[in-house]
């Protein structure tokens, strides 16, 4: 598990390999990731958007921006957690992801970024 805290918001990520798939006459490697967002601050916050940078073993980069996470914009009071699972397809059995969440602090009404630490994606057979 990879963990990082930014401005009182703790991000933890677990990853899994889901298998291989053929798409557009090419093999793809499917990965899942489970993210837990924990509010360790004294203020209520809301996740507004996400920014991902997804890399494969050839250092090809895909950028993904969007509102919320899996269709939700969770509000977290102090001490609350939100966990969700999502996934991605890579063209290689090894890669990595990193990014940030854009959040708003309800006390100060200011937007701020929460870093999503870099986490590795690797098919078990690729490490032998």
TrEMBL record:
Superkingdom field: Bacteria
PROSITE patterns: APAG (PS51087)
Domain named ApaG: residues: 3-128
Name of protein: Co2+/Mg2+ efflux protein ApaG
PANTHER family named in the record: F-BOX ONLY PROTEIN 3 (PTHR14289), POLYMERASE DELTA-INTERACTING PROTEIN 2 (PTHR14289:SF16)
């Amino acid at each position: 598990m990879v963990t990082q805290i930014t401005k009182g918001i703790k991000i933890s990520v677990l990853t899994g390999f889901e298998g291989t798939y053929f798409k557009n006459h090419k093999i793809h490697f499917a990965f899942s990731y489970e993210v837990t967002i924990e509010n360790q601050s004294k203020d209520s916050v809301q996740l507004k958007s996400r920014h991902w940078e997804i890399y494969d073993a050839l250092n090809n980069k895909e950028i993904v921006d969007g509102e919320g996470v899996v269709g939700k914009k969770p509000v977290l009071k102090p001490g609350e957690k939100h966990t969700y699972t999502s996934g991605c397809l890579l063209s290689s059995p090894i890669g990595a992801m990193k990014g940030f969440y854009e959040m708003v602090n309800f006390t100060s009404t200011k937007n701020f970024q929460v870093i999503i630490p870099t986490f590795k994606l690797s098919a078990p057979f690729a490490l032998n």
